[in-house]
Specification:
The chain has eleven helices and five strands; from the N terminus they run βααββααββααααααα. The chain has 324 residues and is an alpha+beta fold. Helix 5 packs across helix 11.
Length: 324
């Protein structure tokens, strides 16, 4: 399959949902494509919907790729081509020459979401996050204020709690691990289960040489857990009321037309992914001594998982325990 490089990299503002951030970028691209078609092709310019409607259509076109490379794929060009007389590949080629400016101008490598972008001959657009962007996004996630479950949409709540036992167990293990790390002074845990000085999560890659071949979030189980978190955040924030969107990208007031996610399955997926991570990724003992930054990073990842396991369990009507 022939691959065309589009832009490497693109910088976008950090936001809770990566899919929503990409959608905002695609919406801006569509405006540039529309302008290009209007100027260069007679009667081929598509009739774009309103901003809010088109944003959600862009967002609907984006899916997470099942891989450990932090990829998303979009049918954006197919949706735009359907409104004109051009093919998806021709739309992609026009997108390549109509790249919009970075959103916003103030974004830089220290704070932005760095994406590599390309498209294939079938007209599918691909976006891949860099490892550094993943670390910045996780730090951003850790700093987000907690969701107010009292105003969570009613469609979050389900009548069953299938698989909640596994998630309750995983949540309790997260709590136990964080308490132990706090007692051993690997981290300093706050009363609301946050780790003080979360910026150390960002800085852990600076010490990679000290760890030899051991990297930060390089193992397949670590990557799988992070990809599961990405899917959880996409599902949560796409279905949140706009007042709860703590995003640097304007989401508008239009409700998502997507079908309600399977919250039970997402909860089980997050619990199982963390248990796989817990089994294969050590935090104490030799790892703590040889690479304390890696241990801190894994504690930080566990703290984020614990928070969203609690949110998902409570939204499903299941209780949480802090130790078994």
């Amino acid at each position: 399959m022939k691959i065309f490089r589009w832009s490497d990299p693109i910088l976008l503002p950090l936001a809770p949902t990566i899919a929503g951030t990409i959608a905002a970028y695609l919406r801006l691209i569509s405006e540039r494509v529309y302008s290009h078609l209007s100027c260069n092709y007679d009667n081929l310019a598509p009739e774009l919907p309103t901003d809010e409607s088109w944003f959600w259509q862009c967002q609907q076109s984006i899916k997470s790729v099942t891989t450990t490379q932090y990829q998303y794929v979009s049918t954006f060009a197919h949706r735009l081509a359907a409104k004109s007389a051009l093919t998806p590949l021709e739309i992609c080629q026009i997108c390549q020459i109509c790249q919009p400016p970075i959103l916003p101008d103030a974004v830089d490598l220290a704070t932005g979401l760095e994406l590599s972008c390309w498209y294939n001959e079938a007209g599918y657009l691909y976006f891949q996050l860099t490892p550094a962007s993943i670390e910045r996004w996780l730090d951003y996630l850790d700093r987000l204020p907690p969701l107010d479950l009292a105003v969570v949409p009613t469609h979050w709540h389900t009548t069953g709690t299938s698989g909640s036992a596994l998630a309750i167990y995983a949540h309790a293990r997260c709590c136990s691990l964080l308490k132990l790390a706090d007692r051993e002074q690997s981290i300093s845990l706050t009363t609301d289960w946050r780790i003080e000085h979360p910026d150390r999560l960002l800085n852990c890659r600076e010490d990679r040489q000290l760890a030899g071949s051991i990297g930060i979030f390089d193992r397949p189980v670590e990557r799988q857990l992070i990809q599961t978190l990405m899917a959880i955040m996409d599902a949560i924030y796409i279905h949140q009321p706009p007042s709860l969107l703590a995003s640097t990208v304007s989401m508008g007031s239009h409700r998502s037309p997507r079908s309600t996610p399977n919250w039970s399955k997402l909860t089980i997926d997050l619990a199982q992914s963390w248990l796989d991570f817990y089994r294969d990724c050590r935090i104490f003992g030799e790892i703590k001594q040889q690479n304390p930054h890696l241990a801190i990073a894994r504690c930080g990842l566990t703290a984020i998982v614990r928070r969203y396991l609690q949110i998902l369990l409570e939204s499903l009507g299941a209780g949480v325990v802090e130790e078994l």
